[in-house]
């Protein structure tokens, strides 16, 4: 096999590996960013500890709402 063919085969193999590696990094970063964004949204929507609320004040607000609902 000539030196040129060896160079082309080796260069092509390394090029394919580099492209595959870059594609995997992009996919992993996109996946982790999407999961982070979804978990942040879930935490924002489900957590009573956002907007300076505590579980105690949330429970008080819920019980006050229940009392007013029962009174009417």
UniProtKB/TrEMBL annotation:
Domain of life of the native organism: Bacteria
Keyword line: Cell projection, Cilium, Flagellum, Membrane, Transmembrane, Transmembrane helix
Presence of keyword Transmembrane helix: yes
Bilayer-spanning residue ranges: 6-29
UniProt name for this protein: Flagellar motor protein MotA
